[in-house]
Amino acid sequence: MKSIKVTILGKQYPLKVEESEEENMLRICSYVDERFRTYREQLVKQPEATVMSLAALSIAEELFEARNNSSEMEKNEQHTMDRVNKSLEKLLEQIKEG
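The chain above was modelled as a monomer; its predicted structure follows.
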């Protein structure tokens, strides 16, 4: 494990990550910081906890949409593969009969 420090909304947080995950974690933290800062700019009069909560909900919404889209793509791919397999089975039957 490797110890790193990340900064989100101007506050440093220590994290322990696998060395192979360090770069990915830094990108994730940078993304979260950017989203929090965007919300901070839009909600100047709101408490920090409200800003962070709303930004976290927005990020979670993105995650759920991405998961849903991925699930839909997998269903479409499976449907396509089923059609291809049926077509191949018919072709093999025709070859056997021919």
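The helical segments are 22-42, 48-97.
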